[in-house]
């Protein structure tokens, strides 16, 4: 009998063996070898440190930059385009 790979799930710490695996096992010889690999999708502390590591932590945002971002946001809220359609076409080499 050839090797077969199945994915299992757990519920409240119990391994759930679906019917297709039970059926497969009933047709296996008695000397079948079963291997189990457990992979956790949880992040460990090292992963969290990499995610939370902010190279800009402790640096201040320049007031002029913050004001320019606020101005752009206000333009978008007001429904005014921040760049004209013609400029977009020209910038990306497209024709109208």
Would you write up a description of this structure?
The protein has 96 residues and is mainly α. It folds into two domains: 1-36, no CATH class; 58-92. The chain is 40% helix and 6% strand. The chain has four helices and two strands; from the N terminus they run ββαααα. It has helices at 19-26, 45-52, 63-77, 85-91, and strands at residues 9-11, 14-16. Strands 1-2 form a two-stranded antiparallel ribbon. The relative contact order is 0.06. The model has no long low-confidence stretch (mean pLDDT 80).
Output the radius of gyration: 29 Å
Class derived from helix and strand content:
mainly alpha
Strand order of the largest sheet: 1-2
The run of helices and strands is: EEHHHH
Percent of residues in helices: 25-40%
Largest sheet: 2 strands, antiparallel
Total strand segments: 2
Poorly predicted runs: none
The count of helical stretches stands at 4
Chain-averaged pLDDT? 80
Number of domains: 2
Portion of residues in beta strands equals: 5-15%
Per the principal axes of the C-alpha atoms, what is the gross shape?
elongated
Distance, first to last CA? 64 Å
